[in-house]
Amino acid sequence: MSDRPSPLLQLTLSRFREFVREPEALFWVFAFPLLLAIALGLAFRDKAPDRIPIGVVSGAGADSATAALARSPVLLVRTMSHDEAREALRTGRISLLVEPAAPAPATPPAAAAPAAGAAGTPRSWIFHFDQTRPDSRIARLEAEDALQRAAGRTDAVTIRSALVTERGSRYIDFLIPGLLGLNLMGTGIWSLAFGITTARQRQLLKRLVATPMRRSHYLLAQVLGRLIFLLPEIVILVGVGWLVFGVAVRGSLWLLLLTSLVGAMTFCGMGLLIASRARTIEGASGLANLVMLPMWLLSGVFFSSERFPDRVQPLIRALPLTALNDALRGVITEGRSPSAVAAQLAIVAAWGLASFLVALRIFRWR
Amino acid sequence: MTESLLEASPQTLPAPAAPEVAVRCRGLVKRYGDVVAVDGLDLEVQRGECFGLLGPNGAGKTTTLEILEGLTVPDAGEVEVLGSAWGKGSNALRQRLGLALQETQLSAKLTVIETLRLFRSFYHRGREPEETMRRLALDEKRNAPVGKLSGGQKQRLAVACALVGDPELLFLDEPTTGLDPQSRLQLWEQVSDFRGAGGTVALTTHYMEEAERLCDRVAIVDHGRVIALGTPAELIASLHAADVVEFASEPELPREALLRLDSVREVRRRGANWSLAVGSLIAGVPALLAAVERSGARLAHLSTHRATLEDVFVALTGRALREE
Q1: Nearest CA in chain B to A8
Q2: Domains in chain B, start-ordered, CATH in brackets?
Q3: What gap in Å lies between CA B155 and CA B251, rounded to an integer?
Q4: What is the pTM of this model?
Q5: How far is A12 from chain B (nearest CA, A)?
Q6: Is the ipTM of this complex over 0.90?
């Protein structure tokens, strides 16, 4: 047997073993992001756009109007009673309600027929819809177009559509880098925060400190133990994105690795910061959620962070996960050069550096 | 010096080296808020001896031990361990120590041998992990995860981790609390072996049998102070009563009558019984039986045992060591 095994190696191996022997941890690191990618990728896969459901109030002229509206490729038309239609609109089951404008308030529906136009279609309609809903606005335009054409309007100019389905512009292309960023954050923070807090709660930290172990070795081993999983994480997520959904990495693979490494290190630092004082797992997980939840929402994982108001944009841009996701998208979808993602990487690294420095200052060894 | 030489070796053997001090502390004080855990405690542990801190829970034993181990900084007092004080560069000192804390839970997912290899890696020189494992009868559990071990096996592993760095000085905090009798015996054997090979041990316990069986010297600790110090035999001898008689009668005899009996040194209440510390059973028991008969009472219970450290503690504090 060699004279003395390396303590750093032993500590790193221990961390690695603790991790792989925890099936839940493996699930969250490897299976969960994949399941998310596959579920969301399927839910938002390329297909003909859904038809927008609209309703026509039954009565005089409803049949011919329904026939006219059904000719639109965008609309899904149903005839319903007045009350039923109001209810459907209110609950969002239809996006638009088409109602014939009553020519005379007291006229019963049967008697109204003679008052209608030659084709049995009323000459005026009321559209009920919520104008804050984009699909309602589309439905309004489509329905108006269909009814006008049916009533004999002719086009003044001819317009043809040329459809675009370029790779890199699909939802899955947006999603994969975001999920990678999310995973780098989650794995780094949970791994460090849980590993160290568990050891502290079980009095293991105190026991280790009572040996001649170098404290720097312990902390370094926690980081190394996490980084072992970095490569498999990237390969699995990006690999499945590529094989199943055809999401290609347009930039350099080395830059992707570097970006991921910087991100992983930064979130290790934040995990260490969370673990630096937490006495219980509950305390650490509360802190971890407090740190991560805003970034789940704000940092452009599932939808673009551009959607938030301009006023909060500087704040969102400054979050480490936003910067990391921007950099990852830059490399994966846009194929950017190192200098083009340097600013984002600097933001990410600054968070990491600050976290490590504060964590090491306030770290409690017992 | 000359005196002790004469005492120790009447023949012309080579003079033994002056006993070296392994641990020395003076005036230790540790407060937690308003609670004074350690209240001006002094003690010295000689090299090669097994020294026990005996006392009830909450007496300050663990705090004292953790101060000696360099894990807790005292509010006042001096500590010297193997000739050095705790502070900068204490890693060199840690290379020479082994310890088992009271509440450590080693990593549940690691196996026994992995845990020992990890601890071994921290020490410049040490014992072979496989051999240490065998000596603590853990070889059957070599590849079992720590989380699946029984309480006794976990405690033996904790001691194995303390021994794997081949220490000169071993600190054990309540090493056998909660163990079954067999595991306790196994651990006692290991501690005796370690001491037999020249090691020094400082341990805490609230089991008097443990202190009597393992320790060369015992400090009885209560409320953060040492209230008695000596070999177990010396401490028991300080009672001036080799045996304890417990009895109950119907009706009861008055305390004054019992104190007047031949050979009775002390009389205490112990539940429904009277507990008499007697210098000699041969004198004390007949005197007691005669007194019972004289008073026309009927004996309801009678038992005797050799005086133990427990009796010393009761005599010193009026309380039992373990509140059941």
Answers
A1: B121
A2: 18-231 (3.40.50.300), 240-306 (3.30.70)
A3: 49
A4: 0.78
A5: 10
A6: no
Mutate to test the interface with B, among A211, A218, A220, A366 (most CBs of B within 10 A): A211
- Beta-carbon contacts of A340 under 8 Å, excluding residues fewer than 6 positions away, are A330
From A205, which residue of chain B is nearest by alpha-carbon distance? B104
Inside any domain, residue A155: no
Q: Determine the pLDDT at residue B322.
A: 63
Is residue A35 in some structural domain? Answer: yes
pLDDT in tens, chain B (324 residues): 344 444 444 444 444 444 589 999 999 999 999 999 999 999 999 999 999 999 988 899 999 999 999 999 999 999 999 999 998 778 899 999 999 998 889 999 999 999 999 999 999 999 999 999 999 989 999 999 999 999 889 999 999 999 999 999 999 999 988 888 888 898 999 999 999 999 999 999 988 889 999 999 999 999 999 999 999 999 999 888 889 999 999 888 898 999 999 889 888 888 888 999 998 899 999 999 999 999 999 999 999 999 989 888 888 887 776 654
Are residues A297 and A181 part of one domain? yes
The residues with which B81 forms a beta bridge, in sequence order, are B23, B84
B118·A18 Cβ contact <8 A:
no
* Chain B interface test: which of A207, A213, A222 (most B C-beta within 10 Å): A207
8 Å CB contact of A5 and B117: yes
Same domain, A355 and A226: yes
Q: Look at A4 and B103 and tell me if their CB atoms are within 8 Å.
A: no
Give the residues of chain A that fall short of pLDDT 50: 1-2, 104-119
Task: Provide the residue range defining the domain that includes A104.
Answer: 52-150
State whether A234 and A322 are in the same domain: yes
- Cβ neighbours of B128 in A, within 8 Å: 1
Q: Which of B91, B104, B118 sits opposite A14 (nearest CB)?
A: B118
User: Which residue is it, tokens 């050799």?
Assistant: B306
Give A139-157 pLDDT, tens digit per residue: 999 999 888 888 888 888 8
The residue with tokens 């970006």 is A259
For helices A171-201 and A281-298, angle between their N-to-C axes, nearest 10 degrees:
170
Does A1 reach chain B within 8 Å, measured CB to CB? yes
How many domains, in total, are found in chain A?
2
Last residue of a domain, one of A87, A122, A150: A150
Burial of A189 (0-12, 13-18, 19+ CB in 10 A): buried
What is the model's pLDDT at position A166?
63
Q: How many C-beta neighbours within 10 Å does residue A24 have? A: 7
Q: Which of A204, A213, A214 is the closest to B104 by Cβ?
A: A204
Contacts of residue A205 in chain B, CB cutoff 8 Å?
none
Measured between beta carbons, the chain A residues lying within 8 angstroms of B173 are: none
- CA distance linking residue B118 with residue A12, whole number of Å: 10
- Residues facing B275 on adjacent strands: B246, B268
Ordered DSSP codes for B90-105:
HHHHHTTEEEE-SS--
Q: Is residue A161 part of a domain?
A: no
